[in-house]
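Extended Data, panel c. Modelled sequence:
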Amino acid sequence: MTDSSLPPTEALDLATLITPTEKGIASRVLARSGGGNVTLFAFDAEQELSEHTTPFDALVIVLEGELVLTIGGEPVPATPGTIVRMPANVPHAVHAPEPSKMLLVMLREPKS
């Protein structure tokens, strides 16, 4: 079963699907299933997600602005049009030096 906050069979402009929060981070789950989920994030300048780990791989797709992902202690600059894989069980963090938007695709292994 898939849970989605998006209407089916409709082309939508990603920029209109989230409203940035002043001095904060906004997020919106666009789709969720047993295999993972897709979340749209909007960061104001100098906002960040602190270091954490997850038990599954995740993909970050930068849509606007610039992000610095720290993965396993190594900084990875990411700009619009780039994609970065964050491996499972490796500490990672996200910093936005400027207002930025990204899609986060979490890849969970389906339960058998």
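The chain has one domain: 17-107. This feature is highlighted in the accompanying rendering.
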